[in-house]
Design brief:
Blueprint: E1 8-14, E2 17-22, H1 27-31, H2 35-42, E3 43-44, E4 53-58, E5 63-68, E6 75-76, E7 92-98, E8 103-107, E9 110-114, E10 119-122, E11 129-133, E12 142-148, E13 156-158, E14 164-168, E15 177-183, E16 194-200, E17 206-207, E18 212-213, E19 217-224, E20 232-238, E21 241-247, E22 251-255, E23 262-265, E24 270-277, E25 286-287
Parallel strand pairs: 2-4
Antiparallel strand pairs: 1-2, 3-22, 4-5, 5-12, 6-11, 7-10, 7-12, 8-9, 8-11, 10-13, 14-15, 15-16, 16-24, 17-23, 18-25, 19-22, 19-24, 20-21, 20-23
């Protein structure tokens, strides 16, 4: 039986804010989805619009994925009406990685300058947050992830040098990569949000192989540094019932907790992973043998 078309809802849009919410989907629904339905439910196509916050809320762990590219001047973080909050971080925490030009974030009066591929964690309870670019000709692009939070942890910037680095894979299996664990409990405390960045080396195209699932966490992947004219094929679904979504540069994809999340590109690339759920143990994974995938 074919799944019902388009199980998402589209919400608030104004000059400085775009907000969309999407329902959670079961494995049985996904089995019957067409290519368009898969993309409508899981792909986030456009994250960076000049002078606008672009947010997508998934009902998987109420995870918010967004982007902001300030050009004309500073942009203040405001709570979309759907959050029913006095301010954005009243009951949430926020993580970000800058994937554009040099940028600046001011959180409750404290200034943090973020260069390319630098991260910032902002704790629950922070009331006033502003984003700006240091050069409008090469604007910052702040890739944003936010999750519900139960307590306040200190706001902190994490550079690439401060990340916990893991060297994984090999050239022989085309998955030689560096995992930069940035907003993770080995580096700083968070309620449930974890973020990091995986950089594939020249000649390597596969990420997250062997693939895995983790019942206690969902995930979002954001692909960037995909060369012009190239693409990444993202694989999702249950290990015995996989599906794929072709992705372009600077696009994100939602990965339910029951789904694998892996990709192969027509070139090497970089991606940012964000996770949320009831477990902060990075190694909490149920691996799938490559030869068992279908």
């Amino acid at each position: 039986m074919q799944a019902e078309p388009n199980t998402r809802t589209t919400d608030q849009t104004d000059s400085h804010l775009s907000f969309e919410s999407r329902y959670a989907s079961s494995p049985n629904e996904v089995k019957g989805m067409t290519t368009d339905q898969l993309r409508q439910n899981f792909l986030i196509e456009k994250l960076f619009v000049p002078d606008q916050f672009s947010w997508t809320l998934t009902f998987f762990d109420r995870y918010l994925t967004g982007g902001v590219m300030p050009v004309s001047g500073p942009l203040a973080l405001e709570a979309p009406e759907q959050l029913k909050a006095t301010y954005f971080l009243e009951r949430r925490e926020l993580g970000m990685i800058n994937v554009g030009g040099a940028g600046r974030v001011v959180a409750d009066g404290v200034t943090y300058d973020l260069d390319y591929k630098e991260a910032l964690y902002i704790g629950q309870g922070t009331q006033n947050v502003q984003f700006m670019s240091l050069d409008a000709n090469t604007p910052a692009k702040f890739y944003l992830n936010s999750t519900p939070a139960h307590t306040n942890y200190p706001t902190r910037k994490v550079s690439r040098a401060e990340a916990n680095k893991l060297e994984m894979g090999s050239p022989e299996t085309a998955n030689n990569r560096t995992i930069n664990q940035m907003l993770i409990n080995k580096v700083l405390p968070t309620c449930q949000l974890q973020m990091g960045m995986t950089e594939l080396k020249t000649g390597s195209v596969w990420n997250t192989m062997p693939a895995h699932t983790h019942d206690r966490r969902m995930e979002v992947y954001f692909y960037f540094e995909v060369p012009e004219g190239q693409a990444v094929c993202h694989f999702m679904g249950q290990p015995q019932e996989t599906r794929h979504i072709w992705m372009q540069n600077e696009q994100a994809v939602i990965s339910p907790n029951w789904s694998i999340h892996a990709g192969a590109g027509t070139s090497n690339y970089t991606f940012i992973w964000g996770m949320a759920g009831e477990n902060l143990d990075y190694g909490d994974m149920d691996f799938c043998a490559i030869s068992d995938l279908k």
